[in-house]
Structures are given as structure tokens and as C-alpha cells.
């Protein structure tokens, strides 16, 4: 009985990527498992009755001929079932070994093809997909097309699972449609959804079709169209895990960048053709400025800068702090007779809480506040900057931009508020919620200095005088193919931060 049970468990643990539950010999075995389970239960009950009798009667209990025959018959029956299931299990392992060998051959073939210079990208595109006629591409109009429609074009392979966010799709759509307007840009996007075939069901099918319907670029007609060997390459070589990536292929099929999404979030279409060399040149010319931080997310920014206003971006999800901070800061601006604009940019991965707070901010007219897509894009741009810098080989000690980005992300990792002030493009000061609120509420202590030096220099000097011996700073980084920095300094005290692993499920 135990051997049969172990055999059944072994069937359920067979690797789904090499053998399907719908195909013999596994399908035959699965059909026999209910019968095997029935005989296991019957045998257990029969044995239990015998054991109960032996314990109750002790030496006086004598097994009848019929009972002995039943146990012998059950033992023979279960032994036969075990032998049959074992034979099916051996066939399953033979098939797995053969399929695994074929997979490795196909993997090496694809690897050689994509690493060998080609005359165009068609050979690579053809190898991505299975040969069955039931699988094909759909163009942006959802019309069936052949693979050669993408021949000799710049192609972004958008790779994700079915949890790609609506915000991500909308932001990428804006870039893609912007590319359509410019004759200097010419690239296509092809969505390659990576799914677990063993758990595929009608629910996932509907989710796939729903995502496919809102994507204005090329898609596969079904996730199973992608060759298993290519999926293996995508995960092992291109480093796809959970977060979407976009692999750029030039018209000749050369991989220009294993993940261009970071580049696209930071610089948009100006980074075309989204090559690693383009990224290098952009970072060489970049500095930590208001424009880099906010990019095109705030349409009023050029006007505010030209009017020499103080611009404050702040975040957090504590409404009491937000009301106190905005009120105190407006009071300081009024006392100094300076122009001030404040913008609430929420918190990462707290969509519902941010939406509720944004509504209250607008209702009470506390400040400007961004909508969902801008909030998502802001924080993802910062994460993209960090990962791009990490790939660029920069450490926090020798890179100001990376240091500032990690400080902003550390602020967001806290449940408390934070704020960053800019005057012009590059004069700035930032602080966590407690420090900046304390400074605003004690403005009378540095008012004279502010009138002499200016608002931001005086606020910086005031913040430097506030000691914070007790703090707990958290920097939460999602798993990403860009890698995690080996060493991170605390945004508050500069000491090296301890490293932990965190598993999180946040449902709002």
C-alpha cells in the first residue's frame, strides 16, 4: 500500500514541461489512480479491522479462512496495481529523458542561431514559434498575419506573464503610438506571454484574451505558440523572472539590449534603437536634476521653473501628516513671499490607498496630485534607473544619481511621508517626513536665515542640525533581472544597511 501511494505521489511530481497529463503514458496512469486509491483505502480498512481484532482479543483472536483469503487477495491486487503503475512510471521517465534531450538540442540550436550574425531577423523569429498551423501572429488590428511581416524591422519582444499591469500597458502604448507619429522611429512590439502549461485553464485563457484585446501591437494568438526551448532561453539567458522585459532585435536579428524597458521608462523614444551603447551615452551626459526625476510627468513643470517657483514633490499614505505638512509648508512660503507649487506623488504598490488620499487632497485643495498611471510610472522609472545604473557598473559611492535614487526608494519603503524641494533644475533638498515637518513647524528658528540665504539653502542647513539617532530605514526592491546592489547605504545616516529577503503579497 505504501509503495503504491509513493508511486502515485511520484506521478504528480513529474516535470510538466517535459510530459503532459493529457498524453500517454501519463494520461493512462492518471486514469488508473482513482482505482488504485480505492484499493488502497479498502486494504487499509481491512488491515485496520484485523489489527483491531488482534488488539482486542489478544492471543484468543484467530483469523478465519475467509478473512485470511481476503487479505491475501487484497495484497495480490495491490501488488499488481503497483507493478502496472511502476511500468507506466518507467515509460514516463523514458519520455521525459527523450523530451529533455530534444529540448536541450532545440535550446542549443536557438542559442547558436541568435548568437550568429544573420542577414535579417526572420530566421530568429521563425524559431521562436512552433510549426503547427494553429499558431500564428495577430497584427495590431487583430488580423492573422505571417511571421515575415516583421522581417527587417526593429522588433521589441515584450516578454511577460499574464500579470502585466494595466498601467504598464498604457504607458508603453503611449510610447508606441508616439513612435507612429515620428518618421525617424520605426519599431514594432511583439508580445510573448510566458505561462505555466500545467496549470492552464479557462480562467487563464480569458485573462490572456483580455490582455491581448487591449494591446495595440503584434501578439501571438496563443501562449502555447512559443517554443519550449525558447522559453528556456528567455528565462535562463535573458533573465526573465516576474517583471516584464523587452528584448530589442535589430533588422538583422542582433540582440541590442536584453531589456530595453528600463531605457524606455527613463528616456522614452529618444533612446531608440534601445541599444546598450545608447544607454551608455545617455548616462554619460545625465545629471541628477528635476527634469530627470520627473521627466514629462508634470506638464506644468517648465512654467513653474521659468517662474522660479519652489517646487515640492511629496509622498506617503498618512493623511494626518499630509495635512500638517502641506499647511505648514504653505505658511512658510507665505511668510517668505515665494512662489510654491506642491505635488503629491503617492506611494509605490499602494494603489487603492493612494487613490483615496488623492481624492481627499483634491477635495481639500491641499496641493496638486497625480493620477494612477503617473504614480506608477514615477516609481517604476526610479527602479529602472537603479537597475540600469547597477548594470552600468556604478556603485553608490561613485554615482550621485544612484545615491539619490536609492534614497528616494528608501523613503518610499517607509510608511512615513517624505518631501523633496527644487528651485530651478538642480538646486534641491530632501528629507523624510518627520524631519521636514519638524522644520516647517519650527520655521521661526530659521526664518531670518531663509531671508538671507534663500529657502532651500536655509532648509538644508536646518535639516542638517536635526539629529535622528533612532530610525529604521527600509529599501524594498522587487526581484528583477537587473540585479540587486551588493552594498546599500542608509539614506539617513550613511551606514551600510543589513540585507534581508522578504516575501510579500499585497492585495488592495
UniProtKB/TrEMBL annotation:
One of its GO terms (biological process) is phloem development. It comes from the Eukaryota. This is Sieve element occlusion C-terminal domain-containing protein. Residues 278-506 form the Sieve element occlusion C-terminal domain. Residues 1-117 form the Sieve element occlusion N-terminal domain. InterPro entries: SEO_C, SEO_N, SEOA.
Amino acid at each position: 500500500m505504501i509503495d503504491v501511494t509513493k508511486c502515485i505521489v511520484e506521478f504528480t511530481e513529474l516535470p510538466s514541461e517535459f510530459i503532459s497529463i493529457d498524453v500517454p503514458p501519463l494520461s493512462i496512469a492518471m486514469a488508473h489512480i482513482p482505482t488504485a486509491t480505492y484499493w488502497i483505502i479498502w486494504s487499509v480498512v481491512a488491515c485496520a479491522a484485523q489489527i483491531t481484532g488482534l488488539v482486542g482479543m489478544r492471543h484468543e483472536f484467530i483469523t478465519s479462512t475467509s478473512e485470511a483469503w481476503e487479505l491475501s487477495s487484497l495484497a495480490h491486487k495491490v501488488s499488481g496495481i503497483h507493478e502496472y503503475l511502476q511500468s507506466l512510471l518507467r515509460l514516463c521517465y523514458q519520455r521525459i529523458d527523450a523530451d529533455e534531450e530534444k529540448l536541450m538540442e532545440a535550446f542549443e540550436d536557438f542559442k547558436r542561431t541568435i548568437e550568429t550574425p544573420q542577414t535579417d531577423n526572420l530566421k530568429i523569429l521563425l524559431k521562436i514559434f512552433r510549426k503547427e498551423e494553429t499558431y500564428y501572429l495577430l497584427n495590431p488590428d487583430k488580423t492573422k498575419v505571417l511571421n515575415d511581416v516583421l522581417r527587417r524591422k526593429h522588433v521589441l519582444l515584450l516578454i511577460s506573464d499574464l500579470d502585466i499591469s494595466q498601467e504598464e500597458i498604457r504607458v508603453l502604448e503611449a510610447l508606441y503610438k508616439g513612435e507612429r507619429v515620428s518618421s525617424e522611429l520605426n519599431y514594432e512590439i511583439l508580445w510573448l506571454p510566458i505561462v505555466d502549461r500545467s496549470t492552464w485553464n479557462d480562467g487563464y485563457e480569458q485573462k490572456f484574451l483580455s490582455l491581448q484585446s487591449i494591446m495595440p501591437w503584434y501578439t501571438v494568438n496563443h501562449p502555447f505558440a512559443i517554443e519550449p526551448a525558447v522559453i528556456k532561453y528567455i528565462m535562463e539567458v535573458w533573465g526573465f523572472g516576474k517583471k516584464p522585459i523587452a528584448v530589442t532585435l535589430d533588422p538583422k536579428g542582433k540582440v541590442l539590449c536584453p531589456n530595453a524597458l528600463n531605457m524606455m521608462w527613463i528616456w522614452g523614444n529618444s533612446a531608440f534603437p534601445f541599444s546598450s551603447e545608447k544607454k551608455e551615452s545617455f548616462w554619460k551626459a545625465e545629471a541628477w536634476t528635476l527634469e530627470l526625476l520627473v521627466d514629462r510627468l508634470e506638464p506644468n513643470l517648465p512654467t513653474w521653473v521659468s517662474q522660479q517657483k519652489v517646487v515640492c514633490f511629496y509622498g506617503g499614505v498618512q493623511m494626518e501628516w499630509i495635512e500638517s505638512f502641506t499647511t505648514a509648508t504653505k505658511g512658510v512660503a507665505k511668510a517668505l513671499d515665494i512662489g510654491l507649487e506642491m505635488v503629491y506623488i503617492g506611494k509605490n504598490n499602494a494603489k487603492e490607498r493612494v487613490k483615496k488620499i488623492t481624492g481627499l487632497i483634491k477635495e481639500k485643495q491641499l496641493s496638486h496630485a497625480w493620477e494612477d498611471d503617473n504614480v506608477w510610472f514615477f516609481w517604476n522609472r526610479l527602479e529602472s534607473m537603479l537597475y540600469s545604473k547597477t548594470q552600468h557598473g556604478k556603485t553608490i559611492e561613485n554615482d550621485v544619481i544612484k545615491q539619490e535614487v536609492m534614497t528616494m526608494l528608501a523613503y518610499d519603503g517607509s510608511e512615513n511621508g517624505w518631501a523633496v524641494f527644487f528651485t530651478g533644475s538642480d538646486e534641491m533638498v530632501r528629507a523624510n517626513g518627520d524631519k521636514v515637518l519638524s522644520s516647517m513647524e519650527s520655521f521661526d528658528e530659521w526664518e531670518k536665515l531663509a531671508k538671507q540665504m534663500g529657502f532651500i539653502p536655509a532648509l538644508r542647513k536646518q535639516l542638517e542640525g536635526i539629529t535622528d539617532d533612532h530610525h529604521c530605514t527600509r529599501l524594498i526592491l522587487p526581484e528583477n533581472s537587473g540585479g540587486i546592489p551588493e552594498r546599500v547605504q542608509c539614506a539617513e545616516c550613511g551606514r551600510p544597511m543589513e540585507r534581508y529577503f522578504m516575501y510579500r503579497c499585497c492585495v488592495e
